[in-house]
């Protein structure tokens, strides 16, 4: 999958009286890890749905490689092979009886031959390391497994950009580790990955760059910078990541601090001696 | 396809309420007995009712490319039997009238008769017949769902025909008129609902 | 979270929700009855105007929402009215014609149906379904039936959300790209919804057992405002409409 | 509500072949905050359901003030007035159309008069600060609001012990703050609160004491001690809380460290100067 440039310009979305997005600008870095941060109800899901073509903005445009998204039948069809969205709740996305059937749903609709469909399903399951689940009924799977099957279903469309809504929500630490491994495999397979989340600690650690949603507007930048800014996180109704709270309490600048090890590294020169 | 609010003269409203009442009361009695013996069946019956309501409020693709709402009562009649469907359909039709502006309160009696009584009984009769004759299950399901839908639409045409006899050709003309107008959407929809039913049954029994 | 049933939303947010069902029932059902019993002109027309005034005034539905709610019944009324207006005969080949009698019947029907629909809206836009069910309970409809109806209402909200989520997910994976795909998607969606409704019921049963559920889903009714003034005003209005409608041919 | 002592002794639960709990011992500290930690599928929910009387153990017993739980109709009825469980998914518990009606359900089942029921509903809504939601339809509420309504429904039974399954799952930082405020109000109203969670950072900060589920067995103790022990968290398929990871990396002992401020306080004496 070649990288393609997904971007949004002056995006506004209104539902009835309510303005969800207001003049949002976003350029998704090709082949990178972008985390989209915002509180519940801040419009993260709407933004992802707009980027995927499921919601048509009231104003502004979504572009792929600088070309406006065409909301006609053919245009949307082409867009869905570039951008795929994975919903927060896997049960909203899984509707077949077993894993193989569910993952094959998209490729079958692309009109591929059976051989090609099988190959795509196998590839998708392999990337997510769930080959062993292929024949299992979906209702017997754990929540974390269902989340990965939902991703496999989107991945089988072989999109260039994968948008994931709250991929780690509800997962325990081991589930998060497995999800991170899955995301790494996606990135290694040349897919651009965008996640929407309110889990600031995770986002700071995982992402190359972040975009914060505040009152329907987006601020983009580096994780430590944006998430370390008390004013930004407060107005986004988030909180600062724990390592940045520690850094701030000790008077350290946030830049470069994304996890425990970089915090410890930044701190070490200031300690009296190795404790 | 329901008769809209205020569409029937008051005498017809009353008459159709009277015709439907015994069937609905019979169904309600069965439901009460079931609910008293097995309290948990309330939740399952409610699930069935909600399923019917949601099914009737989503758009189905029909074979001509237009889309319309399925009645869902054929499936219900096969799964839960007609008396229960008479009761559940009454609630579903009340919800459709007041939540979707589809149908009406004054025309509820007439709509219950076509969708909640005639449709399910025809569908159930064909399902039973098909089983007796040893036909394949898919045939029975298709016939039950398609004809539950078709009979609902034909009964509605007769109900409207009775209310508005044609000044030129009388009752026969008016029934033919309504049947003709609604055939455009309903015949393809009935076929689609039959096919869909076969597919759904296969998925459900696979699990 | 929001299944987007405009009528339901209107009912929950109407200032009239706090009024007692007795007061609203007399007015709204009275208007509905007047719409179908009285001669369409002027009875039905008067009901239509009064209902519209109530909807846009105290019930606070708003123009845009009223149009969104109203277009579906409007289309279905128009199709029916057109069918009544045109006469067919086939004695000497199929012939379509528009007769005076047919036109007159169609106009009467159009006014009556429109009036009745607007009258029904006054109830539907001011009273949540659950309050109507509570009213039926007071009319001695047996408890189990009311409980099942109330649960259908509650389940439907979640199931409608599931239905639209499943539809969106299938659409994103090109599930409606052609007729075969559409049929496959629809059947998978319906089967998934069926299983989900079942699963939902079982989990709720479990959850309710912990709250002491044994054989009845009793709840307390929220307090509602009764007003004899409102009731008297409603009766007066209905009497005035009826009297005017019945005396119309005499005075004219 | 007077405090009562809920405890479990030698608790084993088997579903078919699968052993979920094996000889678990637990004594819930009266009037305290207990966090029950475990990975998904570790048996947290089963333990809560067993404590609430919904699941009957294969061996062992649940006790209130030293008296065995009686699984007859009357015994269970009495137990439900001592212990109430709030499920993770609020929709598994909410059945009525609006908040007021739903919360009134439990107290009505206790056979109280209408006046008493109304008083209980008002109290429960007040404790959770959701009086303004009383007349709102449940299907229009946000996830976080529905979670608090579900708690109000359990609280209206006026139990001595409230068991909450994953109360913060799916909530954003503001939602977590509101949930914490609700839990504080419960504690102030003399209710013992037990939460089951896999969110180690939250549990460490919130709880007075923790119990960790490993292979169906429970280890009880102080948060910093148990969650700071790499061996314990690894075998429980959890991870160490971030502040304890920082402390460990810097060679600090975990005791007393539960959040950013206590970490900073423990660290300060070892800094060259205030940075």
TrEMBL record, chains A, D:
The keyword Membrane applies. It is a peripheral membrane protein. SMART domains: AAA. Keywords: ATP-binding, Cell membrane, Membrane, Nucleotide-binding, Translocase, Transport. The keyword rRNA processing does not apply. One of its GO terms (biological process) is cobalt ion transport. Pfam families: ABC_tran. GO terms for cellular component: ATP-binding cassette (ABC) transporter complex. Residues 6-240 form the ABC transporter domain. InterPro entries: AAA+_ATPase, ABC_transporter-like_ATP-bd, ABC_transporter-like_CS, ABC_transpr_CbiO/EcfA_su, Co_trans_ATP-bd, ECF_ABC_transporter_ATP-bd, P-loop_NTPase. GO terms for molecular function: ATP binding; ATP hydrolysis activity; ATPase-coupled transmembrane transporter activity. It is found in: Cell membrane. Part of an ABC transporter complex. Responsible for energy coupling to the transport system. Probably part of an ABC transporter complex. Responsible for energy coupling to the transport system. Belongs to the ABC transporter superfamily. This is ABC transporter ATP-binding protein. It comes from Propionicimonas paludicola.
TrEMBL record, chain C:
Keywords: Cell membrane, Membrane, Transmembrane, Transmembrane helix. The keyword Kinase does not apply. Its main location: membrane. One of its GO terms (biological process) is cobalt ion transport. It comes from the Bacteria. InterPro entries: ABC/ECF_trnsptr_transmembrane (IPR003339), Cobalt_transport_CbiQ (IPR052770), ECF_CbiQ (IPR012809). It is a multi-pass membrane protein. GO terms for cellular component: ATP-binding cassette (ABC) transporter complex. It is found in: Cell membrane. The chain crosses the membrane at residues 29-57, 69-90, 110-130, 230-250. NCBIfam families: ECF_T_CbiQ. This is Cobalt/nickel transport system permease protein.
């Amino acid at each position: 999958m070649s990288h393609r440039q997904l971007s949004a310009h002056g995006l506004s979305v209104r539902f009835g009286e309510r303005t969800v997005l207001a003049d949002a600008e976003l350029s998704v870095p090709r082949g990178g890890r972008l985390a989209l941060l915002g509180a519940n109800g801040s419009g993260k899901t709407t933004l992802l749905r707009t980027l995927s073509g499921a919601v048509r903005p009231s104003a502004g445009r979504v572009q792929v490689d600088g070309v406006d998204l065409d909301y006609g039948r053919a245009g949307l069809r082409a867009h869905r092979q570039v951008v795929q969205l994975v919903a927060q709740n896997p049960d909203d996305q899984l509707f077949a009886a077993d894993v193989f059937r569910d993952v094959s749903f998209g490729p079958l609709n692309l009109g591929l031959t059976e051989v090609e469909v099988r190959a795509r399903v196998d590839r998708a399951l392999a990337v997510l390391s769930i080959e062993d689940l292929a024949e299992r009924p979906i209702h017997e799977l754990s929540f974390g497994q269902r989340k990965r099957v939902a991703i496999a279903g989107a991945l089988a469309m072989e999109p260039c950009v994968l948008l994931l809504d709250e991929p780690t929500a509800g997962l325990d630490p081991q589930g998060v580790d497995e999800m991170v491994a899955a995301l790494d495999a996606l990135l290694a397979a040349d897919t651009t990955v965008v996640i929407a989340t309110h889990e600031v600690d995770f986002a700071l650690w995982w992402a190359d760059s972040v975009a914060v949603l505040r009152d329907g507007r987006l601020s983009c930048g580096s994780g430590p910078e944006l998430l370390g800014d008390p004013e930004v996180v407060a107005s986004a109704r988030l909180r600062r990541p724990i390592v940045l709270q520690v850094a701030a309490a000790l008077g350290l600048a946030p830049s470069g601090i994304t996890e425990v090890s970089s915090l410890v590294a930044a701190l070490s020169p200031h300690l009296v001696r190795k404790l | 396809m329901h008769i809209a609010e205020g569409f029937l003269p008051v005498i017809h409203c009353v008459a159709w309420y009277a015709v439907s009442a015994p069937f609905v009361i019979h169904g309600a009695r069965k439901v009460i007995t079931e609910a008293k013996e097995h309290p948990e069946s309330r939740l399952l019956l409610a699930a069935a009712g909600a399923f019917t309501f949601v099914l009737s409020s989503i758009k189905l693709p029909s074979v001509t490319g237009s889309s319309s709402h399925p009645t869902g009562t054929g499936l219900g009649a096969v799964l839960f039997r007609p008396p229960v469907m008479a009761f559940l359909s009454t609630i579903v039709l009340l919800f459709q009238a007041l939540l979707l502006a589809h149908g009406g309160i004054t025309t509820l009696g007439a709509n219950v008769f076509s969708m909640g009584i005639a449709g399910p009984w025809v569908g159930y009769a064909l399902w039973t017949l098909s089983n007796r004759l040893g036909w394949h299950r898919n045939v029975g399901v298709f016939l039950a769902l398609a004809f539950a839908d078709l009979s609902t639409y034909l009964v509605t045409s007769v109900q409207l025909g009775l209310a508005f006899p044609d000044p030129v050709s009388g009752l026969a003309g008016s029934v033919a008129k309504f049947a003709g107008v609604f055939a455009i959407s309903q015949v393809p929809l009935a076929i689609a609902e039959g096919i869909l039913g076969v597919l759904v049954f296969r998925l459900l029994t696979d699990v | 979270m929001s299944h987007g049933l405009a009528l339901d939303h209107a009912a929950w947010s109407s200032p009239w929700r706090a009024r007692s069902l007795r007061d609203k029932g007399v007015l709204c059902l009275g208007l509905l009855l007047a719409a179908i019993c009285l001669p369409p002109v002027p009875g039905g027309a008067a009901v239509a105007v009064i209902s519209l005034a109530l909807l846009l005034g105290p019930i606070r539905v708003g123009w845009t929402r009223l149009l969104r709610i109203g277009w579906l019944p409007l289309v279905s009324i128009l199709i029916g009215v057109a069918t009544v207006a045109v006469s067919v005969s086939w004695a000497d080949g199929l012939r379509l014609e528009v007769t005076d009698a047919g036109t007159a019947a169609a106009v009467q029907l159009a006014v009556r149906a429109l009036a009745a629909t607007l009258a029904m809206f006054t109830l539907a836009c001011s009273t949540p379904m659950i309050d109507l069910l509570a009213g039926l309970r007071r009319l001695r409809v047996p408890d189990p039936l009311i409980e099942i109806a109330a649960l259908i209402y509650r389940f439907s909200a979640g199931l409608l959300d599931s239905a639209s989520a499943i539809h969106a997910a299938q659409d994103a994976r090109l599930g409606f790209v052609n007729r075969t795909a559409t049929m496959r998607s629809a059947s998978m969606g319906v089967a998934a919804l069926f299983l989900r409704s079942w699963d939902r019921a079982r989990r709720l049963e479990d959850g309710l057992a912990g709250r002491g559920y044994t054989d009845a889903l009793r709840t307390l009714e929220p307090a509602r405002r009764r007003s004899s003034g409102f009731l008297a005003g409603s009766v007066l209005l209905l009497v005035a409409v009826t009297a005017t409608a019945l005396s119309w041919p005499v005075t004219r």
